[in-house]
Protein backbone atom coordinates (compact mmCIF):
# COMPACT_ATOMS: atom_id res chain seq x y z
CA UNK A 1 0.00 0.00 0.00
CA UNK A 2 1.32 3.43 -0.99
CA UNK A 3 1.65 6.14 1.67
CA UNK A 4 -0.50 9.27 1.42
CA UNK A 5 2.22 11.56 2.81
CA UNK A 6 5.97 11.70 2.48
CA UNK A 7 8.05 10.14 5.24
CA UNK A 8 8.98 12.67 7.98
CA UNK A 9 12.68 12.36 7.06
CA UNK A 10 11.87 13.16 3.43
CA UNK A 11 9.85 16.20 4.52
CA UNK A 12 12.61 17.39 6.86
CA UNK A 13 15.18 17.11 4.07
CA UNK A 14 12.84 18.82 1.58
CA UNK A 15 12.09 21.85 3.74
CA UNK A 16 15.64 22.16 5.08
CA UNK A 17 16.96 22.17 1.55
CA UNK A 18 14.25 24.57 0.37
CA UNK A 19 15.32 27.06 3.02
CA UNK A 20 19.04 26.61 2.29
CA UNK A 21 18.58 26.82 -1.49
CA UNK A 22 16.61 30.04 -1.15
CA UNK A 23 19.36 31.38 1.13
CA UNK A 24 22.03 30.28 -1.36
CA UNK A 25 20.30 32.00 -4.26
CA UNK A 26 20.05 35.23 -2.26
CA UNK A 27 23.66 34.95 -1.06
CA UNK A 28 24.85 34.21 -4.59
CA UNK A 29 23.09 37.26 -6.01
CA UNK A 30 24.44 39.40 -3.15
CA UNK A 31 27.98 38.13 -3.75
CA UNK A 32 28.07 39.11 -7.39
CA UNK A 33 26.51 42.54 -6.76
CA UNK A 34 28.32 43.48 -3.52
CA UNK A 35 31.92 44.63 -3.71
CA UNK A 36 32.05 45.83 -0.12
CA UNK A 37 34.02 44.47 2.79
CA UNK A 38 31.17 41.98 3.52
CA UNK A 39 31.96 40.08 0.33
CA UNK A 40 34.42 37.58 1.96
CA UNK A 41 31.82 36.77 4.61
CA UNK A 42 29.25 36.04 1.92
CA UNK A 43 31.71 33.84 0.02
CA UNK A 44 32.51 31.83 3.17
CA UNK A 45 28.82 31.45 3.98
CA UNK A 46 28.11 30.39 0.39
CA UNK A 47 30.87 27.73 0.47
CA UNK A 48 29.78 26.21 3.78
CA UNK A 49 26.10 26.24 2.85
CA UNK A 50 26.94 24.67 -0.52
CA UNK A 51 28.79 21.86 1.23
CA UNK A 52 25.83 21.33 3.58
CA UNK A 53 23.51 21.17 0.57
CA UNK A 54 25.75 18.60 -1.10
CA UNK A 55 25.51 16.35 1.96
CA UNK A 56 21.74 16.90 2.18
CA UNK A 57 21.08 16.13 -1.49
CA UNK A 58 22.99 12.86 -1.25
CA UNK A 59 20.91 11.95 1.81
CA UNK A 60 17.76 13.07 0.01
CA UNK A 61 18.49 10.89 -3.02
CA UNK A 62 19.08 7.90 -0.75
CA UNK A 63 15.80 8.55 1.09
CA UNK A 64 13.91 9.08 -2.18
CA UNK A 65 15.17 5.77 -3.58
CA UNK A 66 14.70 3.73 -0.40
CA UNK A 67 11.48 4.95 1.23
CA UNK A 68 8.11 4.72 -0.57
CA UNK A 69 6.50 8.03 -1.41
CA UNK A 70 2.93 8.96 -2.35
CA UNK A 71 1.93 8.47 -5.98
CA UNK A 72 0.70 11.33 -8.12
CA UNK A 73 -3.09 11.62 -8.35
CA UNK A 74 -4.58 9.03 -10.71
CA UNK A 75 -6.48 11.66 -12.69
CA UNK A 76 -3.38 13.74 -13.45
CA UNK A 77 -3.01 14.01 -17.25
CA UNK A 78 -0.12 12.07 -18.81
CA UNK A 79 1.72 15.20 -19.96
CA UNK A 80 1.63 16.60 -16.40
CA UNK A 81 2.96 13.29 -15.04
CA UNK A 82 5.78 13.47 -17.57
CA UNK A 83 6.44 17.14 -16.71
CA UNK A 84 6.47 16.32 -12.98
CA UNK A 85 8.98 13.51 -13.47
CA UNK A 86 11.20 15.57 -15.77
CA UNK A 87 11.13 18.62 -13.52
CA UNK A 88 12.02 16.53 -10.46
CA UNK A 89 14.94 14.95 -12.32
CA UNK A 90 16.11 18.41 -13.37
CA UNK A 91 15.70 19.73 -9.83
CA UNK A 92 17.61 16.84 -8.26
CA UNK A 93 20.29 17.07 -10.95
CA UNK A 94 20.76 20.79 -10.35
CA UNK A 95 20.77 20.37 -6.56
CA UNK A 96 23.59 17.85 -6.98
CA UNK A 97 25.43 19.69 -9.76
CA UNK A 98 25.52 23.17 -8.21
CA UNK A 99 27.67 22.36 -5.16
CA UNK A 100 29.89 20.10 -7.28
CA UNK A 101 30.34 22.90 -9.83
CA UNK A 102 31.19 25.28 -7.00
CA UNK A 103 33.72 22.85 -5.54
CA UNK A 104 35.27 22.25 -8.97
CA UNK A 105 35.35 26.00 -9.61
CA UNK A 106 37.22 26.64 -6.37
CA UNK A 107 39.60 23.79 -7.17
CA UNK A 108 40.33 25.08 -10.69
CA UNK A 109 40.81 28.63 -9.41
CA UNK A 110 43.22 27.52 -6.69
CA UNK A 111 40.95 28.92 -3.98
CA UNK A 112 40.66 27.47 -0.48
CA UNK A 113 37.89 24.95 -0.01
CA UNK A 114 35.85 24.52 3.18
CA UNK A 115 37.33 22.22 5.80
CA UNK A 116 40.41 21.60 3.65
CA UNK A 117 38.50 19.52 1.11
CA UNK A 118 40.71 18.21 -1.67
CA UNK A 119 40.69 19.67 -5.15
CA UNK A 120 38.42 17.72 -7.50
CA UNK A 121 39.85 19.21 -10.71
CA UNK A 122 43.35 20.51 -11.49
CA UNK A 123 44.30 24.15 -11.06
CA UNK A 124 43.50 25.66 -14.46
CA UNK A 125 42.33 29.24 -14.91
CA UNK A 126 40.62 28.55 -18.25
CA UNK A 127 38.69 25.70 -16.64
CA UNK A 128 37.90 28.02 -13.73
CA UNK A 129 36.36 30.56 -16.12
CA UNK A 130 34.18 27.89 -17.74
CA UNK A 131 33.11 26.47 -14.37
CA UNK A 132 32.35 29.92 -12.97
CA UNK A 133 30.08 30.67 -15.90
CA UNK A 134 28.43 27.23 -15.62
CA UNK A 135 27.88 27.77 -11.89
CA UNK A 136 26.28 31.16 -12.55
CA UNK A 137 23.98 29.89 -15.30
CA UNK A 138 23.18 26.83 -13.21
CA UNK A 139 22.05 29.17 -10.44
CA UNK A 140 19.65 30.91 -12.83
CA UNK A 141 18.34 27.55 -14.07
CA UNK A 142 17.93 26.31 -10.49
CA UNK A 143 16.01 29.48 -9.59
CA UNK A 144 13.71 29.05 -12.60
CA UNK A 145 13.18 25.37 -11.80
CA UNK A 146 12.35 26.18 -8.17
CA UNK A 147 9.80 28.77 -9.34
CA UNK A 148 8.16 26.16 -11.60
CA UNK A 149 8.20 23.66 -8.70
CA UNK A 150 6.55 26.16 -6.34
CA UNK A 151 4.02 27.08 -9.04
CA UNK A 152 3.12 23.42 -9.55
CA UNK A 153 2.76 22.89 -5.80
CA UNK A 154 0.44 25.90 -5.55
CA UNK A 155 -1.56 24.65 -8.54
CA UNK A 156 -2.04 21.33 -6.76
CA UNK A 157 -3.05 23.13 -3.55
CA UNK A 158 -5.29 25.90 -4.89
CA UNK A 159 -6.60 24.67 -8.24
CA UNK A 160 -6.65 20.87 -8.17
CA UNK A 161 -6.97 20.61 -4.36
CA UNK A 162 -5.66 17.06 -4.62
CA UNK A 163 -3.46 16.81 -1.51
CA UNK A 164 -0.10 16.78 -3.31
CA UNK A 165 1.22 19.82 -1.43
CA UNK A 166 -0.31 18.58 1.82
CA UNK A 167 1.61 15.27 1.43
CA UNK A 168 4.92 17.18 1.71
CA UNK A 169 3.77 19.83 4.17
CA UNK A 170 5.39 19.73 7.64
CA UNK A 171 3.21 17.89 10.13
CA UNK A 172 1.46 15.70 7.54
CA UNK A 173 0.57 12.27 8.84
CA UNK A 174 2.41 9.55 6.93
CA UNK A 175 0.67 6.20 6.58
UniProtKB/TrEMBL annotation:
The chain crosses the membrane at residues 12-32, 44-63, 84-106, 137-159. Keywords: Cell membrane, Electron transport, Heme, Iron, Membrane, Metal-binding, Transmembrane, Transmembrane helix, Transport. Gene3D superfamilies: Transmembrane di-heme cytochromes, Chain C (1.20.950.20). Its main location: membrane. The keyword Transmembrane helix applies. PANTHER family: BLL0291 PROTEIN, CYTOCHROME B561. Belongs to the cytochrome b561 family. This is Cytochrome B.
Amino acid sequence: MKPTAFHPVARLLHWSMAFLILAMLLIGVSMVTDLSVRHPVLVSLHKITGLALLVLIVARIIVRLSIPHPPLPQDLPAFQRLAAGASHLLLYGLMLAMPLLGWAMLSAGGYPRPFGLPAIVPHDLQLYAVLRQAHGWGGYLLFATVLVHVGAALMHAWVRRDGVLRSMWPGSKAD
